[in-house]
Task: inverse folding
C-alpha cells in the first residue's frame, strides 16, 4: 500500500521538528528522547488536548536534568539531529507508563490509518510501533487484528468529535441495512465454502465479516477527512479494477478461471460420485432457502442503492442547470428590468437569450463557449462581439487581422478576451469597446480597449484587480501573458498574448470578418 | 480633432448617398448645423449627376448601392471633378468592397455605428484632405498587405508601394486597437502631424499599388 508507506516515512522517527529537539535537549534526562511517554511526539502536548497534557508538560519540566551546562555542549543542528535519531533508537523506551489519562481520542497527528494504534499507545504507554506490529501480526493470524482495529475505529471518537462513529451509525438506517446485507451475504459465502470443504476459511470468516460490516458503517458515517483516508487506502484496489475496461475484463476472467479450477478440483478429488451428491444437494437446498428468505431484502437494498445514486445524479444535473440559468437567463432578466424603458434593447436581449437557450436545450451547446460553435479565431471573436453586444447593449468594434484554427490555447485566449470585454461593458461606462486580434506567425495578440472611466492601477479597487488576476490565471497556464493598462478618466486596455503551438502553426489565412 | 476647413467658408458642404431614406435623414439630423448638407441621392446614376451639379466638399458614400457599388460613383466623379472628396460609410463590411471603394479614391471609411460628433469630425478631416481610418478599415488594410507580403515574388515588386513600413503597420495596429490619432502620437512619441502623414501614406499605397496581388486578395476573399 504505497500511500501507507508514504505516511509512515512522514510520521516516522525522523519527523520530530528540529526546534523541538533542540529545545528539549537541555531539559531531559535521556539525550534525544524527550520524555517517558512515547505518545508525546504524537502532538499530545502541542495539541493542548486538555488540562491533563498541560499538567503533564509541567511535571516533566520538574524532572532532574543532567546539568545546566549541558546545553552549551550541544553539537550543531544537523549533526545533532542525526545523533538524536541514533540515540532515540538506542534508548527508545519501548514500554513506559501511560501518559494520557483523559478520555481516549484518535489523534490526527501520528495516524497511519485512523489513529487507533497511536491512541492505544498513548493510553497504555507502549510505543506505537509495538502496537502497530501487534495489530499486523494479529491480522495475519486469523484476521483478528483487522477486526479489532475496525471495532476500535468505530468505538473510539476522533479528536475534536463529540461522539464515536458507532453512535452515528446507529442512526443511519440505510447504512445498517447495507451492513447487515453485506454481513449476511458474506456469512452465506463462508457457509458454502465450508460445505465445499474449505474449512481453513472458518478461522478468518468472523473477522472478515466484522471488518466488512464495520468498514461499511465507517464509510457511511465518517467525517470527510477520514473518508479521504479510506479512499486513499482503497486506491490500489481501484487501480486494479477500475483502470481500464480491458484490464478489468482480464482480472475478472482470471478470478473466474481460478474459481473454476478450484471447484473442479474439489469435485473430482477422488470422492465417489455417490458420496458427493448428498452434501451437494443439501447445500443447494440451503442456498435456495436462504435466497428465498433473504432475496427480496437484498433486492430492496440494491434498489435503494440505485435510487440513491440516481437521486445524486439528479441533484448534480440540477446544480448544473441552476448554474447555467444563473449565468444566462437570470442575467438577461436583470438587464431587461434595468432597460425596461428601451423596448428595442429589451427585444434584442430577449431574442438573443431565446437563441442561446434554444441552442443549449436542443443542440446541447454550452452557451458562451467558443469551441464547438466556431472553429476559427475570427469566428470566435465575432461570437464574443455578438454576445456582448446583445447582452450589454454596447457596441463592440471587433477587428481581426489574419485567422487560424482554434486549439485549447486559443480557446483560453478567447475566454480571457470575453471576460475582458464583458468587464469593460459592465464597468467602464463607455458606449463602445474595441476588440482587436492579430494572428502573427509565432503568436496571437489581442487587445480589448475601452474609453471609459478607467482606474488607477496603483490604487486598484478589488473588482478590477480581480479582472487582471483572473484573466492572467486563465491564460498563463497555456503560456500566454496578460497586461492591464489603465488611466483614470481615459479608459482601460487589456493586452493578451498567446504563443502559437508550433505543431499546429500554419500560414495564416485572411480573416473572414 | 478639429482641422481648419480647407475651402474656407467655415462649414464643409456635404452630400449624402444612401439608398435608405431613413438613414439619410438620420445622418442629416446627426450632422446638425455643424455641416452644410447640400443634397442627397439614393442610387449611383442620380448621385453622379447631382454631385456634378452641386460640387460638395465631402460625399458621404454608402458602399452598397442598388445600381452598383459605391466605387462606381467615386470613379465617375474623380474623372471629372478630382477636388470632391469621398468618405465611405457603411454598415455591412465585406472587406473587398470597402477596399474597392478606397482604391477607387475614397479618403476614408467609417462604420454606421459612429456617433454624430465623431462623424462631424471625420467629415471635417476628410474635407481638410486627411485620411480617416476606422479601426475596421485599419484591420482590413493590415490584412490586405499581410496577404501580399509572403507571396513576395520578384516580378513587379515595388517596395515603395506594395509594402507597409514597420511604422505604418504600428500606426494601423493602434488604430485597429481603438486609439485616436492623438493617443497614437503619444504612444509612439511622434507628433499628430506625423501620424496623419503615415495614414495618408498608407492610403496612397492602397490606391496606387498596381500589384495584382491586391486585386487577387480581394478576389480570393470573394470566393471564400
Result:
Amino acid at each position: 500500500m504505497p500511500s501507507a508507506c508514504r505516511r509512515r516515512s512522514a510520521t516516522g522517527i525522523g519527523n520530530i521538528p528540529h526546534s523541538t529537539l533542540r529545545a528539549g535537549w537541555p531539559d531531559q534526562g535521556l539525550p534525544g528522547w524527550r520524555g517517558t511517554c512515547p505518545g508525546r511526539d504524537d502532538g499530545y502536548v502541542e495539541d493542548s488536548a486538555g488540562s491533563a497534557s498541560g499538567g503533564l508538560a509541567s511535571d516533566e519540566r520538574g524532572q532532574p536534568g543532567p546539568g545546566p551546562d549541558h546545553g552549551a555542549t550541544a553539537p550543531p543542528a544537523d549533526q545533532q539531529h542525526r545523533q538524536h535519531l541514533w540515540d532515540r533508537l538506542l534508548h527508545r523506551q519501548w514500554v513506559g507508563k501511560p501518559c494520557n489519562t483523559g478520555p481516549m481520542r484518535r489523534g490526527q497527528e501520528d495516524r497511519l490509518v485512523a489513529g487507533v494504534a497511536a491512541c492505544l499507545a498513548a493510553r497504555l504507554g507502549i510505543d506505537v510501533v509495538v502496537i502497530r506490529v501487534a495489530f499486523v501480526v494479529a491480522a495475519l493470524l486469523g484476521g483478528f487484528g483487522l477486526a479489532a482495529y475496525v471495532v476500535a475505529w468505530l468505538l473510539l471518537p476522533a479528536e475534536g468529535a463529540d461522539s464515536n462513529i458507532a453512535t452515528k451509525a446507529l442512526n443511519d438506517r440505510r447504512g445498517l441495512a447495507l451492513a447487515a446485507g453485506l454481513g449476511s451475504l458474506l456469512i452465506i459465502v463462508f457457509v458454502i465454502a465450508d460445505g465445499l470443504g474449505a474449512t481453513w476459511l472458518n478461522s478468518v470468516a468472523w473477522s472478515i465479516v466484522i471488518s466488512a460490516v464495520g468498514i461499511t458503517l465507517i464509510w457511511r458515517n465518517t467525517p470527510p477527512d477520514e473518508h479521504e483516508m479510506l479512499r486513499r487506502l482503497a486506491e490500489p484496489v481501484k487501480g486494479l479494477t477500475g483502470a481500464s475496461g480491458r484490464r478489468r475484463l482480464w482480472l475478472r476472467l482470471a478470478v473466474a478461471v481460478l474459481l473454476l479450477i478450484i471447484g473442479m478440483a474439489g469435485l473430482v478429488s477422488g470422492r465417489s460420485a455417490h458420496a458427493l451428491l448428498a452434501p451437494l444437494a443439501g447445500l443447494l437446498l440451503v442456498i435456495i432457502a436462504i435466497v428465498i428468505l433473504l432475496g427480496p431484502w437484498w433486492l430492496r437494498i440494491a434498489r435503494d442503492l440505485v435510487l440513491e445514486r440516481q437521486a445524486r445524479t439528479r441533484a448534480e444535473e440540477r446544480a448544473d442547470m441552476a448554474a447555467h440559468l444563473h449565468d444566462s437567463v437570470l442575467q438577461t432578466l436583470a438587464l431587461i428590468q434595468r432597460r425596461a424603458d428601451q423596448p428595442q434593447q429589451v427585444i434584442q436581449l430577449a431574442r438573443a437569450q431565446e437563441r442561446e437557450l434554444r441552442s443549449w436545450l436542443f443542440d446541447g451547446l454550452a452557451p458562451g463557449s467558443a469551441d464547438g460553435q466556431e472553429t476559427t479565431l475570427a469566428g470566435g471573436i465575432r461570437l464574443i462581439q455578438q454576445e456582448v453586444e446583445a447582452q450589454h447593449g454596447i457596441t463592440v468594434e471587433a477587428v481581426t487581422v489574419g485567422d487560424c484554427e482554434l486549439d485549447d490555447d486559443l480557446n483560453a485566449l478567447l475566454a480571457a478576451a470575453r471576460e475582458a470585454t464583458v468587464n469593460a461593458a459592465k464597468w467602464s461606462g463607455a458606449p463602445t469597446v474595441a476588440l482587436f486580434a492579430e494572428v502573427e506567425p509565432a503568436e496571437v495578440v489581442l487587445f480589448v480597449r475601452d474609453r471609459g472611466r478607467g482606474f488607477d492601477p496603483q490604487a486598484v479597487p478589488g473588482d478590477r484587480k480581480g479582472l487582471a488576476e483572473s484573466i492572467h490565471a486563465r491564460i498563463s497556464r497555456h503560456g500566454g501573458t496578460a497586461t492591464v493598462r489603465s488611466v483614470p478618466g481615459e479608459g482601460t486596455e487589456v493586452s493578451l498574448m498567446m504563443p502559437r503551438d508550433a505543431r499546429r502553426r500554419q500560414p495564416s489565412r485572411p480573416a473572414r470578418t | 480633432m478639429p482641422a481648419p476647413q480647407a475651402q474656407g467658408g467655415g462649414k464643409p458642404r456635404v452630400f449624402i448617398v444612401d439608398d435608405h431614406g431613413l438613414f439619410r435623414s438620420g445622418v442629416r439630423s446627426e450632422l446638425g448645423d455643424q455641416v452644410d448638407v447640400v443634397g442627397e441621392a439614393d442610387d449611383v446614376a442620380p448621385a453622379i449627376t447631382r454631385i456634378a451639379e452641386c460640387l460638395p466638399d465631402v460625399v458621404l458614400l454608402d458602399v452598397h448601392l442598388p445600381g452598383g457599388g459605391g466605387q462606381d460613383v467615386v470613379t465617375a466623379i474623380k474623372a471629372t471633378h478630382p477636388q470632391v472628396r469621398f468618405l465611405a460609410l457603411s454598415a455591412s463590411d465585406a472587406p473587398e468592397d470597402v477596399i474597392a471603394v478606397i482604391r477607387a479614391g475614397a479618403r476614408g471609411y467609417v462604420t454606421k455605428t459612429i456617433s454624430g460628433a465623431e462623424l462631424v469630425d471625420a467629415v471635417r478631416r476628410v474635407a481638410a484632405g486627411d485620411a480617416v481610418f476606422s479601426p475596421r478599415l485599419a484591420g482590413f488594410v493590415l490584412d490586405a498587405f499581410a496577404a501580399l507580403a509572403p507571396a513576395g515574388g520578384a516580378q513587379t515588386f515595388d517596395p515603395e508601394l506594395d509594402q507597409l513600413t514597420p511604422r505604418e503597420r504600428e500606426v494601423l495596429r493602434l488604430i485597429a486597437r481603438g486609439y485616436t490619432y492623438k493617443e497614437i502620437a503619444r504612444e509612439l512619441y511622434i507628433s499628430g502631424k506625423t501620424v496623419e502623414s503615415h495614414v495618408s501614406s498608407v492610403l496612397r499605397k492602397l490606391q496606387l499599388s498596381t500589384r495584382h496581388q491586391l486585386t487577387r486578395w480581394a478576389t480570393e476573399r470573394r470566393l471564400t
About this structure: The beta strands of chain B are 13-17, 36-41, 58-62, 64-65, 68-69, 85-90, 108-111, 132-133.
